[in-house]
Design a protein that fits this description.
Layout (H helix, E strand, L loop, with lengths): L15 E5 L27 H13 L4 E5 L9 H9 L6 E6 L8 H7 L3 E5 L5 H8 L4 H13 L4 E8 L8 H7 L6 E6 L7 H7 L4 H9 L3 E2 L10 E4 L6 E5 L12 E4 L4 E3 L8 E2 L1 H4 L4 H12 L25
Parallel strand pairs: 1-2, 1-10, 2-3, 3-4, 4-5, 5-6, 6-9
Antiparallel strand pairs: 7-8, 8-9, 10-11, 11-12
Helix pairs in contact: 1-2, 1-10
The structure holds S-adenosylmethionine and iron/sulfur cluster.
Length: 327
Amino acid sequence: MQNTQLTDSYQRQFTYLRLSVTDACNFRCNYCLPDGYCPTNSEPYLSLEEIQSVVSAFALNGIRKIRLTGGEPTLRKDLAEIMALCKSTTGIETLALTSNGYRINKQLKHYVDAGLDQLNLSIDSLVPETFRLITGHNKLTEVLMAVEQAISLGLKKVKINSVLMREYNNNEMQSFLNFVKDRPVSLRFIELMQTGDNQAFFKQQHVSGYSIQTMLEDNGWLAILREANAGPAIEYTHPNYAGTIGLIMPYSKNFCASCNRLRISSHGNMHLCLFAEEHHKLRPHLINEDTEQLAKRIRELLQHKGAAHSLQQGNSGSTQHLAMIGG
Ligand code: SAM
Ligand code: SF4
């Protein structure tokens, strides 16, 4: 690295922005939006012009990677334009997207043409009925087809996100491992996180990533040495597997010490942590300030970032569900 000017008061460096483009979603994941999407904010989402201001200011501060997220980002009709705008901004080297993959097939080629480099698809179960129970939609086949399409389109990285849940997918480990046997994808198990809306569900379903770590190490998987600023995921490789397995364990000790990401919501709020109590409204400044001023404002706000979340103490800040911010 790194020309980042985004260093917080704990000497963490930030080169990665997660930019949410909508909080709406077409799925009803049981841990996120079990009753489906209910709008809570009547303001419009960030416009292309506002997104350009955000991206330019972060790029000037040294952000090199942007991940577009949501809600479900593919619901935005102008997503390919947003991608082209991000990718043509000086300094932005890598453009990634996180999606539930439902209906992405018709658009994926356009997204790649617009500059998309990396795709994360969320697949919490490889059993069609369990997938339906989790997401509210019988769409596993379509999402699996999106994985194959992403590989064949030659995206630089294809990742699968699976949220671990005791009674839903914790018994599918062998199928998940088989899935990466011949596919060059990174499958990442994410520990279920508590939010304002899912407290009872969290108590019933949370599984620690340590059980997966032990299983991987007992079966010949080796942790890949991580670069400085690689972020909080631990990645495992195995000589007999084309793909890799990642673990994201937000409840583990020191998880926040390697935090390398900042977040902007679809309404232009800067979230210094996924589980912060407060956020900072950038929107009023997006059109009125020039890129230098906005970049300076962002650097100043960063100094308020706390050392760590307090999820272990059952405190998820003001985050009701992750569709609000983008995960
Ligand atoms: N809709 C898109 C999707 O599902 O991929 C993007 C937004 S979603 C909020 C981003 C990621 O956060 C998904 O992989 C989802 O599974 C994960 N997620 C949502 N709520 C979560 C929770 N409470 N704990 C852990 N992961 C969660
Ligand atoms: Fe939608 Fe993603 Fe939340 Fe599922 S996890 S409800 S797909 S935003």
